[in-house]
Amino acid sequence: MSAFPRFGENAQTQTLTADDVTMRVVVAGDGPDVIFIPGGDQTAEAYSQQFARLSDVFRCIAYDPRGAGDTVCSPSPWSMADYARDCAAVIDNICGGEAVVTGLSLGGLVTQQVAIDFPDRVQLAIPMGTAAYIDGFTRDWMQSEIDLRKTGVRLPESFLAPHYAVYAFPAKALHDSALWEEIKERYTHRFANRDPADLIAQWEACLEFDCREQLRNCPVPFHVIGFSEDVQTAPAMCRVVADLVPNGVFHEIAGLGHVSMISHQPDVVAAKLREIVLRHFN
After folding, report:
1. In this structure, which of 15, 156, 267, 276 has its CB flanked by the most CB atoms within 10 Å?
2. Which of 74, 83, 79 is nearest to 101 (CA)?
């Protein structure tokens, strides 16, 4: 089993080189362009189930970010501005200069930075499971993970899924026996092969991120999605983003965790994205 569900046959893969990065980009469907930015430790496949549900109406685009998958770039550290430039390059070269941009977790932070740095390229920003600044429990947890890896410790494979899944899914999902078996296999595969240096680089970029002041003057319309059972980025963190930006709307989806869009409740997330984007264009 792969780390994420695979793309369908209609998805096409291409390579894009821009400045110091060569990205693997996946495209499927026709319609308004919607770019999906993966979260930390995720590849483009994190959105394969969204592609399957949305490519009938949208042209869906995702790519491997710095530090994951087949994308090759200059050595870390990488800033959120670097990640934003990568997304802007995808918009320019794949989407003809403008697109709807959405992303989860790290991808949600990048979504905000793209809207701030390249507002003329972003028709609509939909950050999910996000924050304008990471503090409190989430900061302490992420820093402890970084510090652990800097000591050279590698977590045993048997520990990976029980450790990471509790930050990704709500209790009801974890206690669904069939779903847990799928989650366990995927998370073990995903993190067993994870280069600690890439995890450190991605997560440090998140902890250095603070766009609170920049959001106040961002002209791009925002629809911010939070999940009620999200341990990593609680809905209150997401709401701050919607409140700071001049044209912001907050949505809270009940019963979902940080990564529920993968395998747990992909239909629910896809339906909300479809509703938001179609309303924007209509």
Report:
1. 276
2. 83
pLDDT tens for the chain, 282 residues: list them.
567 888 888 899 999 999 899 999 999 999 999 999 999 889 999 999 999 999 999 999 999 999 988 999 988 899 999 999 999 999 999 999 999 999 999 999 999 999 999 999 999 999 999 999 999 999 999 999 999 999 998 889 999 999 999 999 999 999 999 999 999 999 998 888 888 999 999 999 999 999 999 999 999 999 999 999 999 999 999 999 999 999 999 999 999 999 999 999 999 999 999 999 999 998
Residues 6+ apart with CB under 8 A from 229: 170, 171, 255, 256, 257, 260
The total domain count for the chain is 1
Length of the chain, please? 282
Judge whether 1 lies within some domain.
no
Are the CB atoms for 160 and 168 separated by under 8 Å? Answer: no
In a domain, 229, yes or no: yes
Supply the CATH number for residue 132's domain.
3.40.50.1820
Question: 95 is written with which tokens?
Answer: 């989407």
Contact 120, 46 (CB under 8 A): no
Q: Give the residue from 173, 193, 171, 190 showing the smallest Cα distance to 263.
A: 173
Q: What is the C-alpha separation between 53 and 134, in angstroms, rounded?
A: 31
20 belongs to a structural domain: yes
- Dihedrals phi, psi of 262, to nearest 5 degrees: -105, 110
The answer as to whether 240 is a domain residue is: yes
Q: What is the DSSP string of 170-222?
A: -HHHHT-HHHHHHHHHHHHHHHHT--HHHHHHHHHHHHH-B-HHHHTT--S-E
